[in-house]
Design brief:
Largest sheet of chain B: 2 strands, antiparallel
Distance between the termini of chain B: 30 Å
Number of helices of chain B: 17
Number of helices of chain A: 11
CATH class of chain B: Mainly Alpha
Shape of chain A: extended
Largest sheet of chain A: 5 strands, mixed
Number of strands of chain A: 10
Low-confidence stretches of chain B: 1-19
Shape of chain B: globular
Number of domains of chain B: 1
Number of strands of chain B: 2
Strand content of chain A: 5-15%
Largest interface: A-B, 129 and 135 residues
Mean pLDDT of chain A: 90
Strand order of the largest sheet of chain B: 1-2
Number of domains of chain A: 3
CATH architecture of chain B: Up-down Bundle
Strand content of chain B: under 5%
Helix content of chain A: 40-55%
Oligomer: heterodimer
Radius of gyration of chain B: 25 Å
Mean pLDDT of chain B: 92
Structural class of chain A: alpha+beta
Low-confidence stretches of chain A: 407-411
Strand order of the largest sheet of chain A: 3-2-1-5-8
Distance between the termini of chain A: 55 Å
């Protein structure tokens, strides 16, 4: 409170001080009697020199920043595609930095050189087609080079992955990442968001998970039956708004459960195996050096962006659709630590699309191992597949949905 | 037809003069239909909104430089609710960033720049009595006013203002469960923007009609000052692109309020499984950026137009390559409609489509380069009078180059993958769009202040303002490039998370963030000089002469005291283009457009 008072007092005193200065200034201009707004040659020359001085300072600071910070945080690229990206980035930076220095120099130099001088008239020079041609064609040629090189790299980075690329899914939600390895068959099991339960956070599709979801939708404490019971109970009095909320909830759940039962009818049991051997991995993503990875991305709630800055790879994760990206790590975590001379350095997967309050905390540490230790780790993990961990015993079959959901589809 | 309408128009106004159009306070200052007053109303509102947006940026810059440290300044403005113990809340950080961006882009740089100067200058520089429809013009301002008010109100609602970034991508903006600002705050944001779009549309239609129909005798399209060309193309861009934003906003309003699924599919949020299926969040992004990219030029073209006029006048030389300048404006305007996909390279869009957008986007660099070299050649062998307006116009050319060249890197999809949504982008658009447009606006205010208020601004304060602003703003935005190359994502509340995995980046980002914030505070204080100079000069500045800068354009032939209908007698007749500065064979270094060609004199 005192602080606010002090701030207010300072503001008021400041305003009074300015008012006093203004009075002094007004009196002094009356004494001088000159037209205060006319730019005299002193003003002109001073500002022209300041322009030149500013250019020197500006260029100096830019060079200082380049030397000190240019590549400090970025470091070396750690993937095959990343090396290509960085080469192209350096080339482009060199071109645009040269243009930046050249044109800014001309601008400030001309301002300095051609400031109004007594007796020197401006040169009437309205147009020159040849000059116009030069600065249309030269940039066009340079841009053509930039475009061709850029698209070549773009095609390499976004093209299809090798057929033996390791398939990994990254699942994003507020505010963390979950990885799913495809398991022994290197095929990711199918998923459907409606199957998401505590035991099946990624919504994988198997006969058991469908049954389990239907059961929860029907029988859990907030399930369809409890809601129906609550609404039909004549002994409890509910407010209109509560009834509305419950009814909306009920119709939503009934719609979902109908869709689930459809899914059950259409489900091909042979596909269960592709999901059962998947491996769900939290906290840290382990990758193998020199192996190509094909990542599938999903989002549970809002758009996130998977940003592997050290591998120079990025793609948005979008609710309702799957996005893809590939890269091949080329240095293990141990190796990159030596190369960057930072014993605690870690690769990281960050979220790079605004996704809510804790957006800045949403990340996953990435560890790249050499082939031997990756294989060792993977063999251990393969003993904890999706089935082993979450559905060791089969789920009891559920009652057909039609018997429970009685009323007509939601309006 | 047009000429007949024109004659009648003139006649009608001649009539007015006989009767001495008496106006009361309300019709003169509040519900005014006079384009000069409406221009000033836009300027005042936009300046106020600009101050608010700048203050918001200082608030979140304090958090970025000294994360987690208690600040009296923050608790003074945000109170215990949003800054408990003087530490900014995460949600409010996003709210501040969102509203800062929205106000700056739409309310200051669109409403303030195009609204002020199109209104002020189109009739004056074309030799028209007023806008084609004074009433619609008045509506345009009052819609703008209401939408500004709604946007400000949204800062004070209990669940906080919109927090999804100024681009308000759904699902984040559609789901109140995802972030608190997507409740009432976002509803207000959407309604405010819907009204803003209406304002912008009415204004733009009026500008287009006025430019096409109300040019005075002799004012052919190729004798129009470049300011008018810029406003004209800007208005066309606005008319074609803003309705698309309106549709994007309406669909979002429907998703939020009517349970539709335009942008929503397969979502579980806050433990609730939504039944929405089949929508696409990417659809919103296409719609948004179909406006969003032309919007950049809606902001930039008026600034370039103003600076063309200021640079030609104060170089005492014709603008170099007048027709090439018009061609560039048209080319930029056209291309701006087919480049929106470069904002979406990493959304999972088809890579081939990405390649097409790379190509079209990089094409824009060509007309931009032409404009820069034409400015440089205009300065070359000129006789420069460095007024504050001229300094700002030169500053604009510098920021247009500096921010423009980094656009080449971002437009290259392969490179965009690695720097998309990092501080490199923040640096790029703040320099090329923010600084350039603000410099254009300041230049415009310093240059046309005598026309707006009949008084002169103080020269020394103007100089001081320029130097503090250019040093401060470059100091803020240039280091951001390096933070971005290091890979720091934008819209992070606290960069000390880097400490957990990369000490080198951590040190660098934290150091540069302090530097940036200090420059931002200095630059903000510099604006006090401008505000003081501006308001002080309105009331107590020295009286302006009729043509203070020895300029050729028509607005300087009107009397200093504003009259209804702009010219007391007949409308001026135009005989030449507006850039006859230092023409050989003339005694003076400027020949106003109203002077007939001398015998044997050739038009440029």
């Amino acid at each position: 409170m005192e602080n606010k008072l002090i701030i207010l007092i300072v503001i008021i005193l400041g305003a009074i001080a300015i008012a006093q200065l203004v009075r002094v200034y007004e009196l002094s201009t009356k004494l001088r009697k000159s037209a205060e707004y006319e730019v005299n040659s002193r003003d002109n020359n001073l500002n022209a020199r300041l322009m030149f001085l500013f250019m020197l300072l500006f260029f100096g600071s830019v060079i200082y920043l380049f030397v000190n910070y240019g590549w400090t945080g970025r470091g070396e690229a750690a993937s095959i595609g990343g090396i290509e990206t960085d080469w192209l980035l350096k080339l482009n930076l060199a071109i645009v930095t040269a243009v930046f220095f050249f044109t800014n120099f001309l601008l400030f130099y001309f301002t300095y050189k051609y400031v109004k001088k007594p007796g020197v008239a401006a040169f009437y020079y309205p147009h020159n087609n040849k000059l116009e041609m030069i600065w249309t064609v030269v940039p066009a040629v340079v841009l053509a080079v930039i475009i061709v090189l850029g698209l070549k790299t773009w095609n390499n980075l976004t093209g299809p992955s090798e057929s033996d690329a390791i398939k990994v899914e990254l699942f994003s939600k507020q505010f963390d990442w979950t990885a799913r390895y495809a398991g022994k068959d290197n095929v990711l099991g199918k998923f459907d968001y409606k199957l998401t339960t505590d035991n099946n956070e990624l919504g994988l599709v198997t006969t058991n998970t469908i049954d389990s979801s239907i059961r929860i939708m029907l029988e859990s404490s907030t399930g369809i039956r409890s809601i129906q019971k609550l609404l039909n109970n004549r002994d409890t009095v509910l407010s209109d708004s509560t009834i509305n909320v419950l009814k909306t909830d009920l119709s939503r759940k009934e719609r979902l459960v109908r869709l689930l039962s459809q899914m059950k009818q259409n489900h091909n049991k042979k596909l269960d195996a592709t999901a059962w051997d998947d491996i769900i991995q939290k906290d840290t993503l382990y990758l193998c050096k020199d192996k190509e990875y094909e990542f599938n991305f999903r989002a549970k709630d809002v758009i996130h962006s998977a940003y592997f800055l050290h591998f120079r790879a990025q793609i948005n994760t979008v609710p309702g659709m799957t996005t893809r990206m590939k890269f091949t790590p080329i240095y293990t975590t141990e190796e990159i630590r030596k190369r960057r001379n930072d014993p605690n350095f870690q690769y990281v997967l960050m979220c790079n699309k605004i996704c809510g309050g804790a957006h800045y905390k949403m990340k996953m540490i990435v560890v790249v191992k050499d082939k031997a230790s990756y294989k060792k780790w993977m063999t251990l993990r393969q003993k904890e597949t999706f089935k082993d961990k979450y559905f060791p015993a089969p789920v009891a079959p559920v009652i057909p949905v039609a018997q429970v959901v009685t009323n007509t589809p939601m309006n | 037809m047009a000429s007949i309408a024109h004659e009648e128009h003139r006649h009608a106004h001649g009539h007015h003069d006989v009767h001495h159009h008496e106006e009361n306070f309300v019709s003169k200052y509040i519900f005014s239909q006079d384009h000069k007053m409406i221009g000033k109303q836009f300027l005042m509102t936009a300046v106020f909104m600009g101050i608010v947006a700048m203050m918001l940026s200082i608030l979140f810059r304090i958090q970025l430089a000294w994360p987690g440290e208690s600040s009296d300044f923050l608790s003074f403005f945000l109170g215990e609710k949003w800054a408990p113990n003087g530490v900014l809340k995460e949600d409010m950080y996003l709210g501040l960033v969102t509203i800062h961006g929205t106000i700056m882009v739409f309310f200051l740089l669109t409403g303030g720049l195009s609204g002020t100067f199109s209104n002020m200058l189109i009739p004056l520089q074309l030799g028209a009595r007023d806008m084609a429809s004074g009433f619609l013009n008045m509506l345009s301002y009052w819609f703008f006013f209401i939408s500004s008010l709604l946007m400000l109100v949204s800062l004070f609602v209990e669940s906080g203002p919109a927090m999804a970034g100024w681009t308000i991508y759904p699902p984040l903006s559609a789901l109140p469960q995802a972030v608190s600002g997507s409740g009432t705050g976002m509803t207000l944001w959407l309604f405010s923007m819907a009204i803003f779009i209406a304002s912008s549309l009415i204004g733009s239609l009026n500008y287009i009609v006025t430019v096409l129909n109300l040019r005075t005798k002799g004012m052919t399209m190729t004798r129009m000052p470049l300011t008018i060309w810029a406003f004209f193309v800007t208005a066309i861009l606005g008319v074609l692109s803003f309705p698309v934003l309106l549709s994007a906003a309406l669909l979002l309003i429907m998703d939020r309020l009517a349970g539709t699924s335009f942008y929503l599919s397969d979502i579980i949020v806050g433990g609730e499984m939504l039944a929405n299926h089949g929508g696409s969040p990417i659809l919103y992004q296409h719609l948004f950026w179909f406006l969003g990219h032309p919007e950049v030029y809606i902001v930039l073209l008026p600034a370039l137009g103003l600076s063309s006029e200021i640079i030609a006048t104060n170089s005492r030389k014709p603008i170099f390559g007048y027709k090439a300048m018009i061609g560039s404006i048209l080319a930029i305007g056209f291309l701006s409609f087919i480049v929106w996909g470069h904002h979406m390279f990493v959304t999972g869009m088809n890579p081939f489509l990405g390649s097409v957008f790379v190509f079209t986007t990089l094409l824009i660099a060509i007309p931009s380069a032409v404009k820069v070299f034409n400015y440089l050649t205009t300065l070359w062998k000129g006789s420069l009078v460095l007024t504050p307006a001229m300094l700002f116009a030169i500053g604009l050319v510098s920021t247009f180059i500096t921010g423009g060249v980094t656009g080449i890197i971002l437009a290259d999809s392969a490179l965009d993958i690695a720097i998309h949504d990092t501080y490199f982008v923040v640096a790029h658009f703040h320099i090329v769009m923010g600084m350039s447009a603000v410099f254009g606006m300041f230049g415009g205010v310093y240059h046309w202040f005598p026309k707006m208020f009949g008084r002169m601004m103080n020269l020394r304060l103007g100089y001081a303002h320029f130097w503090i602003t250019i040093v401060g703003a470059y100091g803020v935005f240039f280091p951001m490039h390096f933070v971005g190359i290091a890979g720091a994502p934008r819209r992070y509340y606290d960069y000390s998370v880097y400490g957990e995995f990369d000490k080198g980046s951590f040190d660098m980002i934290m150091d540069l963030n302090v530097v940036i914030t200090i420059f931002a505070i200095v630059a903000a204080f510099g604006q006090i000089l401008f505000l003081f100079n501006f308001f002080y000069s309105i009331f107590r500045g020295p009286k302006a002469p009729q043509n203070p800068w020895d300029s050729n354009t028509l607005e300087w032939t009107t009397p200093v005291e504003h009259v209804h209908g702009n010219w007391p007698g007949e409308l001026p007749i135009v005989h030449r283009w507006p850039y006859d500065y230092s023409k050989p064979g003339s005694d003076v270094d400027f020949i106003p457009q109203t002077v007939p060609l001398a015998e044997g004199e050739e038009e440029h």
